[in-house]
Amino acid sequence: MTLLEVKDLAVSFPTADGLVQAVRGVSFTVDAGRTLGIVGESGSGKTVLTQTLLGLTPGGQISGSAVFDGVNLLGLPEDKMRRIRGAQISVIFQDPLTSLHPLYRVGWQIAEMIRAHDSSVSKAQAHERAVELLGRVGIPRPELRVNDYPHQFSGGMRQRAMIAMALSLEPKMIIADEPTTALDATVQAQILDLLLRLQQDFNTALILITHDLGVVADIADDVMVMYAGRAAEKATKRDIFYSPHHPYTKGLLESIPSSTAASERLRPIAGQPPSLINLPAGCKFHPRCAYVMDRCLSEEPSLRVVGEDAFHSSACWLPVEAAGLSDRAEELRKETVREGRSDAAAEVAEAIAAAPESEGSVI
Amino acid sequence: MSNPSADGDGDMLVRVENLVKYFPVTGGGFIRHTVGQVQAVDDVTLSIPRGKTLGLVGETGSGKSTLARCVAGLIPITSGTVTFDGRDITNLPRRVMRPVRREIQMIFQDPYGSLNPRRRVGSIIGDPFAIHKTATGQERKRRVQELMERVGLNPEHYNRFPAEFSGGQRQRIGVARALALRPKLIICDEPVSALDVSIQAQVLNLLADLQDEFGLSYLFIAHDLEVVRHVSDAVAVMYLGRIAEAGPRDPLYTSPRHPYSTALLSAAPAADPDAAASRQRIILTGDVPSPIDPPRGCRFHPRCPKAQAICGEQEPVLESKPGDPSDHVTACHFPVEAGEQLAAAGRRETP
Asked: Which of A140, A248, B176, B276 is most deeply packed, by most CB within 10 A?
């Protein structure tokens, strides 16, 4: 069952330096009980995208639609949005210390959240529910810890408290924005397991925003890779990891130390992400792409189906068969590039090859 | 055998022996007095060979950054010794320490916080020359531009401010500054954790190239276990101020002996869905205890799936276990055997 359907969502912010095109036409759907991982580097638009869904991007110029459970979230009046935010869609942020108020007890903050959405709940009932929720997310002795202040909790416990708060009204969808980035590996494993287990219990839809492909490999069902405000590739988790089509996805996978044998040279993506005010013409990835061709310089590709599975789509001019990490796919990519590259593109390609280790010009 | 990475004594650039660093905790009202000690680093022995990399892993609060600062001579040591290049540099007076500092440099985690935003990049990188009075005027500028070129920055950007550079470029500025005085040891404290994955790979390659070119030794601290595996020759795992296990990289990653290293390695997310699904994950319960009042006996015993009575009473010795090479050492009464399933293994849930 489709819970959220986003179509052609675009968000830009007028600034003194020019228009910042943070999100430039993104479409995706999320089903109940499933997890969509959104992956991308800093500035790829992943956070702006989800904050726009919640009406948290004031000053942004927004177009497109985002239908959640039959209601278009974009342009929803603030009083209606308040009833959805928290109760039906809740958010877990990256930094649990700054997301909790330092001067209020953890339990009070959870209880307040419950009472803000349903004033018929008494203070005592809300407190009881806070204890129950803290126990549910694995806080030991919740009846005592409910009266602690946030600083008395460790990082992992604070993130558990945030999850308890996000769950307090049994939302249909949770947006987790880098939920484990601030945590150590062992605590991260605990939190990811908790999210997964709670998702199964409540059949919640989960949007997981992260730059960590390891986290995505662990708990996502579907993945959307974003670059410069657009989806570069969308696929099931297995297709993204085992037969990536877009050179950016492939580059991300190859940049991870674990993908190369230890001590071998890593294969980073040359250059750095573009400025969102002054985007390059054509495909926004072409100044960093090893497979740049003539048409990439002038025409921006849109998403098209590239795999056997109709869900696997990629925004790249390379032929649809050129997906995956096999030698044959690489041969096909090279062949296409040989045919599709003349003077202008060859110059770009030379510039990339000449400085594969440096980061190009100053922004 | 208490020397994790020893493979011939003359080749050791750094030797740390029985290093202890306690921070006093003060309390009381008008009269402040010491009420306890944060045992940040407690009896750590390790060494770093010339031209090699020692990786240091552990969770927040395990003492890895404190250990690094002790080695760099930035904070006084409570007890123990640090030998650098055959010379005892433990708690040297400032004036005597100064020439040694040229040879030990640091690269920090946050490329935004570690560069003065009001100063031009050329002058930031040129600082070491000014402080140690080794180059002035045009000579300094020439050497700074050489360094910038070497780390992949455009030397023409000499007069720009840090804000004009991206995160990865700023980290290159930090690398250039660390490299200026041709150090023998660079301590890298989470050098890539603030960078995006594609940029992270660029900086790791740069560090590898510089090591080859200048014969540098690295003490490399990171919480990302895959990054540490990629760069290190030997690895030490810290827990609550102590070394739980240390040894050459490959045996330690493929067959860890300490239950804590085993759990830590099993918890690290792998960017491979099939591996993630089939992996036996050991989820540790609870949090790291306070270093003010660490558990008696083995410090890991309250969270250890293999703990028995003796673990709470007797501190295990860091030693080579039967079947391991002499430089692979483990501090555990009941080391993990090959193929052994730990009690909590494979369970996808939390307590």
From this structure: A248
